[in-house]
Write a sequence for this structure.
């Protein structure tokens, strides 16, 4: 089958969504399909731009390529699902969150002017139309499916993406908590730094790049965390596997996250995950005192949880292994089978 | 966003007043609402948009239409047919010329001649029997920057009337089911058929009374409960087994409605309205029998049996009621489906959210209408694409698909 996987790209930025897109194409090819990733750059500001950038997708003709039909189109996140295709399947990573649950929060984008409010509603309208056209709808987590249903009334089957392939292993339960992911405000790395400031016995390694890194480095210096908080920047797959192998636990607590591959990666390295009660998607797999710790989103609560794990390595090991069993259940065989069903 | 809100409100005795009393608190939790005082000619200060609740009763709505004509805004069209309203605002003020002009705008020379006939006493008033043929909705729609309707039926009529602006279909909100209701005080052991609201010919009361008489012959334990004021000059003979209450307050209305085994809401002709009584009955899980017209015909078959208007109406109605008497399982299923519907698309918070979306789209819609087309047009001009060419034709088609075409 000829399959086009559609995903927007933000030039120079790479995160979980990009990994999912690449992996899907690779897994489809492994199974004998002719698969290609189709991307268009996406710039979402100023707010007026959201509509025109989405409309670019609408103008694409992906019914065939070089004279041969494209049998199936799998669109992933906003605005790639605005594309037209007679056999459009959407595997929803997320909608344009600034127009939904992030609206009127620090992470929102639309102000209170009538024009901006109306623009936000335009995004809703476009979603209802373009997602409503899909032959089948999947969402990467229950959290994303719930948001979709409450905002558009559309129902999606939950289909989590398997984590990226790394040489996962567990060497030890070391002396640092690991944070993995793009460093922006929504990922809430700041909370981890504040936890370190609250408990001088804690150490962390922050792997990843992003627009919030400079600010966080300044914050770490201001809190006197030099030496205890290390910003590792973008790391290779081997380095990442090594960090997972050696850490005590993995911290992952974005605000109302869509899904989050990081907990699954942590589990595959047999590490427990520390998250917060408002983290959204991760709460579907991180269960308190079963596969990790779920705490209030405060520095004191997070510091206490990390320190507790450092003093209870048996629990850390037990919960990490319980997580591994859960993570191993998610396979590309199942995911591809459902997407092509 | 701040919205000027024009509507009749309690203690005015109007279904739309009750509607607004229900909706306003939920809406005010989402947007700033400035409620206009009845009769006020000035819009509340500092508002971005005005919302006008328009119904067919001139007594409750004249001042709202006058305000709308001064400052266009979003119109909630509770009735599609506004003949009675327009007649009241013209003939009711001895302004025959206004009525003549409205009828002419509606139906040309024929409309004007008909209006002359009415004014001169040569023809019966149009609003009594033929209002649905001359809805006079055109007296309001040109001032609407957007229209909110409650039903597919009304939406279709608005479009057929040539209205090209935005139309939002927002279901009538359901009243939250009361925790506990006082006893209705009806005789026990009877099968109670209820009919609620203003009681007049358009509610098919003569047909209902006739059908009830047939039912009573077959089911002697049947009772007909009529609740609501009788229309002036309408004095039907109420036979044995018929109980009539005039106007009752909200709580009493709920008690009586909850005590019915079947709630009957017949209508013809329809003014394109939604029935607050039917929505209340849904919330209380009552099985419904309705006329197969307008909004009533849009109700799902699971909650309402629809009786066609026409020659067999009385017989079909009697058979339907008898069928429901003898099938408690069906009544039970209909009641459950009714509750589900009320708690679904008619749920108050969902309706308030839909209002907020519509108002936000209306308030800023004009300013952003051309955001997309302007940028596409600029890009086309820069690259030398010409109007009428194939490439622009395709772009226009895609724009239409996303609702931005012209």
């Amino acid at each position: 089958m000829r399959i086009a996987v559609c995903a927007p790209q933000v030039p120079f930025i790479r995160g979980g969504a990009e990994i999912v897109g690449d992996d899907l194409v690779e897994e489809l090819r492994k199974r004998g399909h002719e698969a290609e990733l189709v991307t268009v750059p996406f710039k979402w500001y100023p707010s007026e731009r959201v509509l025109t950038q989405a409309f670019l997708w609408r103008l694409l003709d992906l019914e065939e390529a070089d004279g041969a039909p494209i049998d199936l189109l799998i669109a992933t996140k906003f605005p790639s699902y605005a594309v037209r295709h007679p056999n459009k399947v959407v595997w929803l990573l997320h909608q344009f969150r600034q127009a939904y649950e992030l609206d009127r929060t620090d992470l929102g984008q639309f102000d209170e002017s009538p024009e901006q409010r109306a623009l936000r509603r335009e995004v809703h309208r476009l979603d209802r139309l373009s997602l409503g056209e899909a032959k089948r709808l999947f969402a990467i987590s229950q959290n994303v499916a719930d948001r979709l249903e409450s905002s558009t009334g559309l129902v999606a089957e939950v289909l989590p993406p398997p984590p990226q392939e790394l040489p996962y292993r567990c060497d030890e339960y070391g002396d640092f908590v690991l944070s993995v992911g793009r460093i922006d405000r929504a990922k809430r790395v700041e909370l981890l730094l504040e936890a370190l400031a609250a408990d001088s016995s804690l150490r962390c390694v922050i792997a990843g790049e992003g627009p919030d890194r400079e600010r966080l480095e300044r914050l770490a210096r201001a809190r006197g965390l030099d030496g205890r908080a290390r910003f590792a920047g973008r790391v290779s797959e081997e380095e990442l596997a090594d960090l997972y192998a050696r850490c005590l636990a993995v911290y992952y607590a974005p605000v109302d996250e869509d899904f989050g591959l990081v907990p699954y990666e942590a589990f595959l390295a047999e590490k427990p995950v520390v998250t917060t009660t408002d983290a959204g998607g991760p709460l579907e797999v991180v269960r308190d005192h079963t596969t990790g710790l779920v705490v209030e989103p405060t520095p004191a609560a997070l510091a206490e949880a990390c320190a507790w794990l450092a003093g209870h390595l048996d629990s850390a090991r037990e919960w990490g292994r319980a997580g591994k069993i859960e993570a191993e259940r998610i396979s590309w065989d199942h995911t591809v089978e459902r997407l092509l069903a | 966003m701040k919205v000027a809100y024009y509507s009749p409100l309690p203690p005015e005795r109007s279904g739309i007043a009750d509607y607004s009393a229900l909706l306003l608190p939920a809406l005010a939790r989402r947007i700033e609402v400035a409620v206009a005082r009845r009769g006020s000619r000035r819009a509340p200060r500092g508002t971005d948009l005005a919302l006008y609740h328009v119904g067919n009763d001139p007594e409750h709505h004249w001042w709202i239409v006058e305000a709308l004509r001064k400052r266009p805004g979003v119109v909630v069209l509770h009735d599609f047919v506004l003949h009675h309203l327009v007649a009241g605002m013209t003939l009711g003020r001895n302004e025959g010329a206004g009525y003549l002009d409205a009828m002419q705008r509606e139906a040309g020379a024929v409309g004007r001649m008909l209006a002359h006939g009415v004014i001169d006493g040569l023809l019966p008033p149009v609003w009594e029997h033929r209002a649905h043929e001359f809805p006079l909705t055109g007296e309001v729609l040109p001032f609407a920057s957007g229209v909110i309707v409650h039903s597919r039926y009304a939406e279709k009529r608005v479009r057929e009337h040539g209205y090209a602006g935005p139309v939002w279909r927002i279901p009538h909100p359901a009243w939250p089911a009361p925790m506990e209701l006082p006893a209705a005080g009806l005789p026990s052991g009877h099968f109670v058929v209820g009919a609620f609201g203003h009681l007049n010919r358009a509610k098919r009361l003569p047909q209902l009374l006739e059908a009830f008489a047939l039912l009573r012959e077959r089911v002697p334990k049947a009772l007909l409960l009529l609740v609501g004021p009788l229309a002036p000059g309408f004095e039907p003979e109420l036979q044995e087994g018929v109980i009539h209450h005039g106007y009752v307050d909200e709580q009493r209305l709920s008690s009586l409605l909850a005590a019915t085994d079947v709630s009957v809401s017949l209508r013809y002709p329809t003014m394109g309205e939604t029935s607050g009584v039917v929505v209340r009955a849904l919330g209380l899980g009552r099985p419904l029998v309705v006329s197969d017209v307008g909004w009533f015909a849009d109700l799902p078959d699971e909650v309402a049996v629809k009786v066609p208007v026409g020659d067999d109406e009385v017989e079909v109605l009697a058979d339907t009621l008898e069928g429901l008497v003898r099938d408690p399982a069906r009544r039970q299923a209909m009641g459950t489906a009714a509750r589900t519907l009320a708690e679904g698309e008619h749920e108050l918070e969902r309706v308030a959210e839909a209002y907020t979306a519509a108002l936000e789209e209306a308030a800023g819609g004009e300013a952003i209408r051309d955001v997309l087309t302007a940028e596409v047009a600029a890009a086309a001009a820069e690259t030398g694409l010409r109007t009428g060419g194939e490439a622009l034709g395709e772009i226009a088609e895609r724009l239409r698909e996303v609702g931005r075409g012209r």
